[in-house]
Amino acid sequence: MHSQKFQQFFSRYKILALLIAIAIIWAFFASMTEGAFLTPRNVSNLLRQMSITGMLASGMVFIIIAGEIDLSVGSLLGLLGGIGAILNVTHNWPILPTVAVVLVVGVLLGAFNGYLATYRRIPSFIVGLGGMLAYRGVLLGVTGGSTIAPVSDSFVVIGQGYLPRVVGDALALVLFVVLAFLTLRQRQSRLKYQLAVVPFWQDIVKIVASGLILLAFIATLDNYGGIPVPVLLLLVVLGVFTYIATQTVFGRRIYAVGSNMEATRLSGVNVNRVKLAIFALMGLMAAFAGLVNTARLAAGSPSAGTNGELDAIAACFIGGTSMRGGSGTVYGALIGALVMASLDNGMSMLDVDAFWQMIVKGVILVFAVWVDVVSGSNRR
């Protein structure tokens, strides 16, 4: 009986449970650091820190939903960030062509991974494992094992800049209006097709709660510089990827491939092409994350992105993406990334030994997958 209630709770309210978990984590670290954890400066740094993992997780969630895995993204992040630093520092390229080339290379390398995993039938785990080693080796080769610095001021803005407060406040207002519109539109759509809907007051509470969270978010960041550019980029990624997942044929095909690949193939969908596109998107996200990481450090580092793939995968599983494929959300993965970043940030502030940080993150990852296993029967 208790097991059934537990399964129902996590199946229906997983995101709510994650938000409660984040509130508990923040309250704990705030009390342990005498409020320093929740200062505007630290919250801004925390969000900037999680934006890199969040970008990787946004691409990884599609990979996992489709029933695949990519272990190369951490090394790919480091390589692409290193390429950006070399073009900008060594060859004195302006920022725009540097960013354009890095993004294109990211898409091509991601598509290459996808080609090997689909058309060549090499298991994606092996492709990713090989890429993890090969891309790290290429990075060490092109950088000579040394840091490439300093990148230009225009490059640094990508990782360290802030939006003007007026612009940030205006964007927050637009985001709130869009959230309210989409919530009411979804309700009208379900009523139109005579589908079950929650009571109207619940939608109103959802809109009001979103507005209050957004208001607190903007007010906190306005007290320390404004909205960081990496956080803005992550919000754009969230909007675009959520739209792809929920409003496009391609998004529905991703879920279909992960749920039942053979049935999807028999229905006429080119499964290989879908998977190739997903890996290309993953490469694009690795490129964005690599650029932000290099800009944040103001340098290209040969060790950049180490264990980045593990954080991204953990964020997806913590955020509710099923290890069996066919189920997951982008916003869930980003909440998972926030959980990981909050733990890293809080434990670092408390000077917790590195080995304890690894143990805690490992235990949480195993717990998240266990929750997925015990709630799997209800999800299906």
TrEMBL record:
Cell membrane among keywords: yes
Protein name listed in UniProt: Xylose transport system permease protein XylH
Membrane topology listed for this record: Multi-pass membrane protein
CDD domains to which the protein is assigned, alphabetical: TM_PBP1_transp_AraH_like
InterPro entries referenced in this protein's UniProt entry, alphabetically: ABC_transp_permease
Transmembrane segments: 12-29, 95-115, 122-142, 162-184, 204-221, 227-245, 274-292, 354-374
Keyword Ribosomal protein: no
GO cellular component: plasma membrane
Gene Ontology MF terms in the entry: transmembrane transporter activity
Domain of life, per lineage: Bacteria
Reported function: Part of the binding-protein-dependent transport system for D-xylose. Probably responsible for the translocation of the substrate across the membrane.
UniProt entry keywords in alphabetical sequence: Cell inner membrane, Cell membrane, Membrane, Sugar transport, Transmembrane, Transmembrane helix, Transport
Subcellular location: Cell membrane
Organism whose genome encodes this protein: Pararobbsia silviterrae
